């Protein structure tokens, strides 16, 4: 399972699952990723600390 935002591997038993109103499921390795994705709506390709390929 990988973080939906930064694409880092999430160890089993950790991380957070988030389901949107439209039924899309997101996994987050940390609240930092959750916040960036859901509240700040940042693009992970523009952040240095994510592993998303450009
Ligand atoms: Zn993450």
What is the N-to-C order of secondary-structure elements (H for helix, E for strand)?
A: EEH
Which stretches are poorly predicted, pLDDT < 50 over at least 5 residues? none
What is the name of the CATH topology?
A: Ribosomal Protein L24e, Chain: T
Strand content: 5-15%
Please write the CATH class name.
Mainly Beta
What's the helical proportion of residues?
10-25%
Record the strand order, biggest sheet. 1-2
**What would you call the structural class?**
alpha+beta
For this structure, the quaternary state is single chain
Number of domains: 1
Tally of separate helices: 1
User: Compounds present?
Assistant: zinc ion
User: What is the residue-mean pLDDT, rounded to a whole number?
Assistant: 94
CATH superfamily: Ribosomal protein L24
Give a short account of the largest sheet.
Answer: 2 strands, antiparallel
Outline type: globular
End-to-end gap:
21 Å
Q: Would you mind describing this structure in some detail?
A:
This protein is α+β, with helices and mostly antiparallel strands. The chain has one domain (1-45): Ribosomal Protein L24e, Chain: T. 17% of the residues lie in helices and 15% in strands. It is built from one helix and two strands, in the order ββα. It has one helix at 31-39, and strands spanning 16-19, 25-28. It has a two-stranded antiparallel sheet with strand order 1-2. A hairpin with a 5-residue loop joins strand 1 (16-19) and strand 2. The longest helix has 9 residues, at 31-39. It is globular. The model has no long low-confidence stretch (mean pLDDT 94). Bound molecules: zinc ion. Zinc ion binds next to loops.
């Amino acid at each position: 399972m990988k973080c939906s935002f930064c694409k880092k591997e999430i160890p089993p038993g950790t991380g957070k699952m988030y389901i949107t109103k439209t039924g899309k499921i997101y996994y987050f390795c940390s609240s930092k990723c959750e916040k960036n994705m859901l509240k700040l709506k940042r693009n992970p390709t523009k952040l240095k600390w994510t592993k998303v390929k450009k």
